[in-house]
Amino acid sequence: MHSIQLGLIENWKQFTLLVIVNAFVGGMVGLERSILPLLAEQAFQMAAKTAILSFIVVFGVVKALTNYFTGTLANRFGRKRLLIAGWIIGLPVPFLLIYASSWNWIIAANILLGINQGLTWSSTVVMKIDLVGEKKRGFAMGLNEFAGYLAVAAVAFLTGWLAGQYGIRPIPFYTGIVLAMAGLMTSIFLVKDTVHHVAKEAADSTIPIRKQLFRETTWSDPNLGAVTQAGLINNLNDGMAWGLFPLLLAFKGFSIGQIGLITAIYPAVWGFAQLFTGHLADLYSKKKLLFMGMLLQALALVLFPVAVTITHYISLSVLLGLGTAMVYPTFLATIADCTHPKDRAASIGIFRLWRDLGYAVGALLTGLLADIFDLDIAIYAVALLTFLSAMIIRFRMTIQ
After folding, report:
1. Which one, of 172, 151, 174, lies nearest residue 163 by Cα?
2. Residue 145 · residue 328 · CB < 8 Å
3. 183/371 Cα distance (integer angstroms)
């Protein structure tokens, strides 16, 4: 173990590989981002927003539960094994989307995609934190999420463009076959486990091991609890954006290509800005970054229904992306700072359980509100929840 070193520079080769793998992981979500709600309406003649958003509910619940089990099993089975298992489970996803003859096939694809995302993304997050040690956690998470969400955006834009050129199926989904194979091969042959890095850091850690980790991460600890609720609300509004923004934009008369552009800009800014916001989390107040980020998201959301032109929507997508970029790497860096190295994977798994349940809550809540009232009311409700989440961070967190 004496030859094991912690740090970004000391482990740059493995770290870079994990960044590339996470880009493949993000791309698998981008596969659906701009075209699946439209596929529901065009290929399966689905009108109810709640039914259309059912694929996000399933994805969110399955990914959330998989995050939890990935966190609890990481120390027992090793990060690399869970990463490989995630890619094997993700292989059938693009084929199910291509050949789906009913909406149940789409639901099945999203069950597998949720497991794939939970296993692969959780593993790469924890492995990067393992490698870098204490000093560069925010930057490490910024790079991780940058790669993942830039890939979400790139593939969302690519599939939207391909759908405009060649139709919604099958060509846009060929991208997923390439991504899944590349992710699996890289994980098997090039990625190394980080179990020894954890052991080295644990030997020097002064943070106590927590007795009630699930309860403390969920709510009872003021810092972990504030981060966890904000994670849930963040993904609640992302689930709404994923499901309702394409429908709202289509209702306002934008083309598939324009919808692809607007829906891709939000995760593109979210992804790219994390290169800088992750580093900020190492240098400045994590609490202030989290508060301002949630506030910025609330502002963007409350303006979304009243926007008119494509310039308005691009500007609001940029604003929403910036707000999300401020909080996303900071969530994970804060949890790593507040937990013992041996608790870290499990605590991150618990946080990611609640955070990704936000997808399901967001899709269900906003789908129901959109069906009962209209799209605008659904978006305003989420804006209010996001504002309240910012207030909880402001008044509950004790760390600066």
Report:
1. 172
2. yes
3. 38
Structure tokens at 381: 């409700």
Kindly report the number of other CB atoms within 10 A of residue 373's CB atom. Answer: 12
Residue 79 corresponds to which tokens in the numbers above? Answer: 């990060």
The residue among 380, 269, 366 whose CA lies nearest residue 320 is 269
| Rounded CA separation 250/245 (Å) | 8
Nearest to 263 by CA among 317, 306, 300, 224: 317
Q: At what angle do helices 103-132 and 310-338 cross, to 10 degrees?
A: 50
| Cα 145 from Cα 293, distance rounded (Å) | 15
Identify which of 154, 139, 113 has the alpha carbon closest to the alpha carbon of residue 9. 139
- As a whole number of angstroms, the distance between CA 59 and CA 203 comes to 38
| Spatial distance between the Cα atoms of 231 and 237, rounded to a whole number of angstroms | 10
Q: Are 130 and 197 within 8 A, CB to CB? A: yes
Q: Within a 13 Å sphere around the CA of 133, how many CA atoms are in the beta-carbon half?
A: 15
**Tens digit of pLDDT for each residue in 153-208?**
889 889 989 998 998 889 999 999 999 999 999 999 999 999 899 988 888 888 88
**pLDDT for 271 beyond 60:** yes
Q: Which residue has the tokens 């199926």?
A: 169
- Provide the token pair at 150: 């830039």
Alpha-carbon Rg of the chain, whole angstroms? Answer: 20
Helices and strands (DSSP H and E) totals, the chain: 17, 0
Q: Which two tokens stand for residue 12?
A: 């740059």
Residue 343 neighbours by CB under 8 Å, 6+ apart = 209, 210, 213
Q: Are 243 and 364 in contact (CB under 8 A)?
A: no
